[in-house]
Design brief:
The chain is about 50% helix and about 10% strand. The chain has about 230 residues and is of the alpha+beta class. It folds into two domains: about 1-50 and about 215-225, no CATH class; about 50-200, Butyryl-CoA Dehydrogenase, subunit A, domain 3 (Up-down Bundle). The strands form three sheets. It has a three-stranded antiparallel sheet with strand order 6-5-7. β1 (about 15) and β2 (about 25) form a beta hairpin. The protein is elongated, with a radius of gyration of 22 Å. The two termini are about 15 Å apart. It binds zinc ion. Zinc ion binds near residues 20, 23, 40 and 41.
């Protein structure tokens, strides 16, 4: 662990680059509630908050429960002239499982359901020991890195907007009522927004490092302290 105002140009340890404009800053331990902003463009670099890890874990577990509800509860019901049909996403997936649309259904399930669930699982795996002040689990840096890489690909919000647009189109032809799974999806969108606002990747990386797991590439360069 480097001391205050120390940095290592070989590995980048102790330095922090602005993700928006690349300005390089020397990293400092921030007290809780203080925000670190880029000196050049004002982008927020770190914003540690008290109890944020427990809040993110709670939201990640909520995400897992909502994803289960979104898959297995009825998503919507279409009725016309007295005949109605309701289905869940799982039912849709089974109905198209061996047709031409199978790859599309698979992609939708992975992007809309699989990725948010996997991300929530990885966050719980990363943060659970850190929130209790214990030693992190094995491969914690890889787990958190993977969770950050999945972030742009979780598309629950886009799915809900797409469904809304499709419903407006179909609304003229038949009567549509939304099932519990639709509302679980809407809740999922709000939970993911809340989780993003609590989350500060810099603080989590710092906590992983402080707990003794190498994260800054020192483990990959021979002859440096973490190797
Ligand atoms: Zn900047």
């Amino acid at each position: 662990m480097l001391q205050q105002d120390e940095f290592d140009l070989k590995t980048g340890a102790g330095l922090i680059a602005c993700p928006r404009c690349d300005a390089l800053h020397v990293e400092e331990e921030l007290p809780e509630g203080v925000t670190a902003q880029c000196i050049r463009c004002g982008h927020v670099l770190a914003r540690p908050r008290a109890g944020a890890f427990s809040q993110i874990i709670a939201l990640a577990v909520t995400t897992l429960v909502l994803v289960l509800a979104a898959v297995f509860f009825p998503f919507l019901e279409i009725s016309r002239m007295g005949f109605g049909h309701g289905t869940s996403l799982f039912g849709v997936a089974l109905a198209f499982a061996d047709g031409l649309l199978a790859p599309l259904v698979l992609a939708v399930l992975v992007l809309v359901i699989g990725l948010p669930a996997a991300r929530a699982g990885l966050l719980v795996y990363t943060l659970l020991p850190l929130a209790r002040g214990r030693k992190p689990y094995a491969h914690v840096a890889r787990a958190f890195r993977l969770s950050e890489q999945m972030k742009p690909w979780s598309m629950a919000e886009i799915f809900i907007i797409g469904t809304g647009v499709a419903m407006v189109k179909v609304g003229g032809l038949a009567r549509i009522s939304f099932g519990p799974a639709f509302w679980a999806f809407v809740a999922l969108v709000f939970v993911s927004i809340a989780s993003r606002s609590f989350m500060c990747a810099t603080t989590i990386w710092d906590a992983i490092e402080d707990a003794g797991a190498p994260t800054d590439g020192r483990e990959k360069i021979e002859g440096t302290p973490g190797a």
